[in-house]
Amino acid sequence: MKLRKTAAVAVAVLALTATACGGKEGSAGDKPATKPGDAAAPKLPTYAVASGVDLNSPTFKKAKERGKLIIGSKADQPYLGFEDQATKVRSGFDIEIAKMIAAELGFSPDKIEWKTVNSKLRETAISTGQVDYYVGTYTINDKRKAQVGFAGPYYKAGADLLVRKDETAITGPESVKGKKVCSITGSTPLQEIKKPQYGAETVELGKYSDCVQQLLTKQVDAVTTDDSILKGYAAANKGKLKVVGKPFTEEPYGIGISKEDKVLRDKVNDVLEKFEKDGTYKKIYEATLGLSGSAYTEPPAVVRY
Amino acid sequence: MNVLLDHFPEFRDGFIGTVSITAVSSVIALVLGVVIAGFRVSPVPPLRFFGTAWVTLLRNTPLTLLFLVFFFVVPEILFPGMSPFVLASLALGLYTSSFVCEAVRSGISTVPLGQAEAARSLGMGFSQTLRLIVLPQATRTVLPPMSSIFIALTKNSAIAGAFSVTELFGWQTLMSEQGYAIAPVFFWVAVAYLVITFAISGLFRLLERTMEVAR
């Protein structure tokens, strides 16, 4: 009986993958093959909601008054920050990290309001208090530190290349000379791969899913961005795409918090350290990003300032 | 100010990009628009039908969708390996041509019928009548709506930035990505667009003045 159930799940997953690769517009990354929460997937940990939390932080006080926490995230990155358009349920690594922090601040999942924030508007949304904190493939750098505060890093990504399964010519960033590489208009990995030492021809589109579409239809030879995002797309298009696995930049992900709110920043750093130690972090990884077939790596040490 | 000084070369490239795509698409739109307007007022039914279909189709398609078709469908079926700039100019030019066509057609209908009849009685054919008598008189009426159309085209060219064409939108994305504050970035982009659109409206004012006649 149990065996039959597993088989049924496997068939369902296959069917999902098949429809996800239907090649209709925007199908790239529509549905992760194994969604967190499927019977076949490793179980997500649950987070005990802390009670009686009191922080001398303006952001926290505002959230307490409001009675809910507003968290900024992404909605179009399978396994990282993904919103199922039908059910409005959010899933992924970044989403779980955000929930874990919320629980430690005393907010249960039903007290969280999610807000999808466009990359361009992240600094604005954080500094004007539209979101209490932001979790979503947010690389820490000095320019951004001038505008917002960062807790973490909680994950180390790096720019990598996504290619078709049968690709043999592209083995890393040094083999893309004259090849067409696609990414989002103005993105950092694209600026990197343009440099003379790599010398790729670039195609700049508005969305990653557009790039993946062009890769599937052989109009470009590779897609570049953070490996974490690419792994999600590789998993969503199983058997068609693969990640090269030779990162050529360092992208430490942090949690964006209002620049002045050092109290909250320290608290979030405490939370990250606590859960990295007790294994919860690893469990989250295996039930989300781990499903895309990439091995678990130890999280980087948090930087307090 | 910093953001402009630090990244002036990229800003310049973006500005040149916006100007060139605007210029190329404008030429495409103007030529096609006038030709299609001629089709729509011609005595030949198939041409009239073609013109109507052209305008209906292109004017009612969202521009972003048209771009998607040009970038994801056209290279698959027709011409693989066309440069993004050419594809974007075509998408923008064809889209705008339908608006130009309608403006020209409304200009044509302001020319009194007697003018065309007089031309016919002198033995002129359809294309001569249009070229020598009707269009020169229609041009005056058409100028104000035309200037609006080309200003709209300039602003619509920002969509090309999401389709691999270097222009101002791309510069703005690049600066945001590098972590510059969003307000100054948008300020400079807005200034750049204003320079272009003011130049266009100035040009049209000049044309209007030179074509003025005592009525």
Name the overall outline of chain A.
globular
- Can you summarize the main beta sheet of chain B? none
Query: How much beta of chain A, percentage-wise?
Result: 15-25%
Largest interface: A-B, 28 and 25 residues
Biggest beta sheet attributes of chain A: 5 strands, mixed
Overall helicity of chain B: over 70%
Q: What is Rg of chain B?
A: 20 Å
Write the SSE topology:
The complex is a heterodimer of chains A (305) and B (215).
Chain A: H1 2-20, H2 58-66, E1 69-73, E2 76-77, E3 81-83, E4 90-91, H3 93-104, E5 112-116, H4 122-127, E6 133-134, H5 142-145, E7 149-157, E8 159-164, E9 180-184, H6 188-194, E10 201-205, H7 208-216, E11 222-226, H8 227-236, E12 241-243, E13 251-257, H9 262-277, H10 280-287
Parallel strand pairs in A: 1-5, 1-6, 9-10, 9-11
Antiparallel strand pairs in A: 2-3, 3-4, 6-13, 7-13, 8-11, 8-12
Chain B: H1 2-6, H2 8-41, H3 45-59, H4 63-77, H5 84-108, H6 113-121, H7 126-156, H8 168-177, H9 182-211
